[in-house]
């Protein structure tokens, strides 16, 4: 009862654990692929932003370089200042240079002439916001005196001033959902595209990590590129990621599902293996969970032990035992009986080697399955197991039931070979099958075991009880050793002895015992024989 309850609890635990494992196995890979798609999509988008920011910085530097080249032209120009030729040259530069919108000549704080012609305006140089790589001072947010137009960047070089429209700094082709800013590293704006939120961008530049930034910038992705005193920032709403995210998911999710299915499949496989009787038996065979008990066989006239039958038990890791009738049929059906027979043989040799080697009159009977007999492979296993053990083949009896004789030719071959090798062969459960005398006469046998069902009827007046003497009679006709199985009462023993049945086995003498207990039983039994003599 206790064992049953433990087994039940064990199964519940296995089911709970397996369900958990299956859940984690199913959800885990899918969650992981979703996370991975998001990380990858974010990274792809951030790289795109990085590219645009980089392009904007390059554009800005190119503009400065172009303006510098344009201004340099005037360093060595040999023309009269503010002459027609001078003004024409200035106009030429503004027309040919993509980067300069206007150019002017300054003398004593007054703008004398520009590409547009002669002027005479006092100008106040705005404070320098930035110095280019070429060493040119730049003032941002200058409103041109002449045109009175929008605010521009003024570049000062010797006596010249070049004006650049801020739009030139960010003159790149950009997705309208991306906002872009180019500014100096101390926060002076050079140019912007697509109407960015400057306050938020400054927060982004000044927050060191993306994680912190998310807390500020919320649902925006951004990239910051810095170079030579300039900073470019590209920003886009997080929702821009969706397209890329979908593409990543299309690629990764199938792997996630596949992985989940694989893990769930493994869990189901393990569960079935653990919970199905056959699965459990397979594991038991792999783990060699079988032990052998020994039930004494005695000479009825003297009570002396002349041998024992090896009876297998399945010992579970928790110590509980399963009787053979509960697993042998499944083992026979599945073919697992072959490795079980091997393990029984190994156990018999291990347990009984010493005792058998020093008591040549003692034998151990081993039960063979139909498959063992049909294939005959058991003989090779026995041969190698007995080698160099001191155990003689005649000390091993092989018990075969009539089920083992289905393939009669194969059975004959195996039994003949077994006897040639020196083993004794007994028919088990005699009387319960279909064997007729003539049928058995064809087989070279050593002993018969009369089935317990006949012994049970002794002393009763059941219908079978009248059959029992005939069964004994038949066995005697065959002139074989006879062993009566399942003797539980003295009356049965006396009855059998009176009909000259030589050997008996049953609870009257002993139950099947663990190896150590059987050896003690045997020693005590031998000692009583000596005393009797
Ligand atoms: P079996 O070969 O006929 O073995 C005799 C069975 O009767 C054993 O049950 C034994 O414990 C039981 N028995 C012996 N004396 C008495 C008795 O006085 N009263 C009662 N009520 N029972 C008694 P066990 O050990 O449960 O084995 C059951 C069957 O399992 C065996 O029947 C045999 O067919 C099979 N078996 C056991 N061990 C092996 C094995 O190693 N290989 C194979 N192939 N089959 C095995
Ligand atoms: Ca048997
Ligand atoms: Ca039997």
Structure commentary:
With about 525 residues, this protein is of the alpha+beta class. It contains 16 helices and 21 strands. The strands form three sheets. An eight-stranded mixed β-barrel has the order 12-13-15-16-17-18-19-20, surrounded by four helices. A seven-stranded antiparallel β-sheet has the order 3-2-1-7-6-5-4. A four-stranded antiparallel β-sheet has the order 9-8-11-10. Helix 1 packs antiparallel against helix 5, helix 3 runs antiparallel to helix 4 and helix 8 runs parallel beside helix 10. The longest helix has about 70 residues. The chain is rod-shaped and about 155 Å long. The two termini are about 45 Å apart. The mean pLDDT is about 90. Bound molecules: ligand C2E and calcium ion (CA) (2 copies). The site of one calcium ion has 4 residues, from loops.
State the helical fraction: 40-55%
Largest sheet: 8 strands, mixed, barrel
Annotation field: number of helices = 16
Low-confidence stretches: none
Mean of residue pLDDT values: 88
What's the layout of helices and strands?
Blueprint: H1 2-72, H2 84-96, E1 102-107, E2 110-114, E3 117-122, E4 130-131, E5 137-142, E6 152-157, E7 160-165, E8 179-184, E9 189-193, H3 198-206, H4 210-217, E10 220-227, E11 230-237, H5 242-275, H6 277-286, E12 290-299, E13 304-315, E14 321-322, H7 324-334, H8 337-358, E15 363-368, H9 370-375, H10 377-386, E16 396-400, H11 408-420, E17 424-430, H12 437-441, E18 447-450, H13 452-456, H14 467-477, E19 481-485, H15 490-498, E20 503-505, E21 513-514, H16 515-532
Parallel strand pairs: 13-15, 15-16, 16-17, 17-18, 18-19, 19-20
Antiparallel strand pairs: 1-2, 1-7, 2-3, 4-5, 5-6, 6-7, 8-9, 8-11, 10-11, 12-13, 12-20, 12-21, 13-14
Bound molecules: ligand C2E and calcium ion (2 copies).
Residues 428-429, 449, 451, 485 line the site of one calcium ion (CA).
């Amino acid at each position: 009862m206790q064992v049953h309850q433990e087994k039940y609890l064990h199964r519940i635990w296995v089911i709970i654990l397996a369900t958990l494992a299956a859940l984690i196995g199913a959800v885990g890979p899918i969650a992981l692929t979703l996370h991975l798609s998001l990380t990858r999509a974010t990274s792809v988008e951030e790289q795109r932003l990085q590219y645009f920011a980089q392009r904007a910085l390059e554009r800005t530097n190119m503009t400065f370089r172009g303006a510098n080249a344009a201004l340099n032209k005037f360093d060595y120009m040999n023309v009269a200042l503010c002459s027609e030729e001078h003004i024409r040259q200035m106009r030429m530069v503004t027309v040919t240079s993509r980067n300069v919108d206007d150019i002017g000549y300054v003398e004593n704080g007054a703008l004398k002439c520009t590409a547009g012609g002669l002027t005479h305006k006092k100008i106040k140089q705005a404070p320098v916001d930035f110095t280019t790589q070429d060493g040119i001072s730049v003032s941002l947010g200058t409103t041109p005196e002449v045109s009175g137009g929008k605010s521009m960047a003024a570049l000062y070089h010797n006596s010249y001033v070049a004006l650049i429209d801020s739009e030139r700094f960010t003159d790149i082709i950009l997705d309208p959902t991306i906002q872009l800013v180019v500014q100096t590293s101390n926060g002076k704006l050079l140019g912007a595209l697509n109407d960015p939120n400057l306050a938020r961008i400054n927060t982004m530049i000044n927050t060191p990590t993306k994680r912190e930034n998310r807390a500020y910038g919320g649902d925006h992705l951004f990239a910051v590129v810095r170079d030579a005193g300039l900073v470019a920032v590209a920003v886009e709403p997080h929702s821009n990621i969706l397209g890329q995210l979908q593409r990543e998911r299309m690629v990764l999710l199938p792997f996630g599902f596949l992985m989940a299915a694989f893990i769930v499949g493994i869990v189901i496989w393990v569960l079935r293996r653990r919970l199905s009787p056959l699965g459990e038996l397979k594991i038991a065979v792999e783990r060699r969970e079988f032990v052998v008990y020994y039930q004494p066989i005695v000479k009825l006239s003297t009570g002396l032990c002349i041998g024992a039958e090896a009876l297998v038990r399945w010992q579970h890791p928790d110590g509980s035992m399963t009787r053979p009738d509960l697993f042998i049929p499944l083992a026979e059906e599945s073919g697992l009986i072959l490795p079980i027979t091997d393990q029984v043989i190994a156990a018999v040799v291990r347990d009984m080697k010493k005792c058998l080697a020093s008591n040549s009159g003692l034998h151990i009977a081993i039960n063979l399955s139909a498959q063992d007999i049909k294939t005959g492979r058991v003989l090779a296993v026995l041969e190698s197991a007995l080698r160099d053990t001191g155990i003689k083949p005649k000390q091993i009896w092989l018990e075969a039931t009539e089920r083992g004789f289905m393939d009669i030719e194969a059975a004959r071959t195996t039994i003949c070979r077994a006897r040639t090798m020196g083993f004794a062969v007994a028919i088990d459960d005699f009387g319960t099958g279909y064997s007729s005398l003539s049928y058995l006469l064809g087989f070279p046998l050593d002993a018969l075991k009369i089935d317990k069902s006949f012994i049970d009827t002794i002393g009763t007046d059941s219908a079978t009880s009248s059959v029992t003497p005939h069964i004994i009679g038949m066995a005697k006709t065959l002139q074989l050793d006879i062993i009566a199985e399942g003797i539980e009462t003295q009356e049965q023993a006396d009855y059998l002895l009176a009909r000259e049945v030589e050997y008996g086995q049953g609870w009257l003498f002993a139950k099947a015992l663990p190896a150590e207990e059987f050896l003690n039983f045997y020693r005590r039994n031998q000692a009583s024989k000596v005393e009797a003599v």
